[in-house]
Design goal:
105 residues, 4 helices, three-stranded antiparallel β-sheet, alpha+beta, Sufe protein. Chain: A
C-alpha cells in the first residue's frame, strides 16, 4: 500500500522587478509530503524558468519538511543565487507551518 501523502502550498512575495511578480503576482511552492514522516516526495513552484524549478526541486526532494528545516534553509542560502532566494525560504516556511497545523506537530 502506498503511503498517504498531503499536498501543501506556501507562498511569498518577490521583488517588484522579478518576472514571477510580473507574471503571477506571488511566488508559490507546492509540496507533496508523506503525512506520517514529513518526507517531501515531490515539489514544484511557479518560477518562470524550467531550470529554476528543477534546481529547487532537487534541493528539497526526499528531505523532511520539518526535521531537516535547518539543512534545507542552509542549502537554499548556500546554493541558490537567483533573485528569488528570500521568496523560496519564505514560501518553504509558510508550507512548513501549514504541514504543522495539519498534522498537529
Amino acid at each position: 500500500m502506498d503511503k498517504r501523502t498531503l499536498y501543501i502550498t506556501g507562498e511569498a512575495r518577490t521583488n517588484m522587478d522579478n518576472a514571477i511578480t510580473k507574471i503571477y503576482g506571488v511566488f508559490y511552492m507546492a509540496f507533496e509530503v508523506v503525512e506520517e514522516t514529513g518526507e517531501i516526495v515531490d515539489v514544484d513552484c511557479n518560477a518562470t524558468l524550467k531550470l529554476t524549478r528543477t534546481f529547487i526541486r532537487k534541493l528539497f526532494l526526499h528531505h523532511g519538511i520539518l526535521d531537516e528545516s535547518l539543512f534545507l534553509e542552509q542549502e537554499v542560502d548556500q546554493r541558490y543565487f537567483g533573485s528569488s532566494g528570500k521568496a523560496i525560504l519564505a514560501a518553504y516556511r509558510d508550507a512548513r507551518q501549514h504541514y504543522r497545523q495539519i498534522v498537529g506537530k
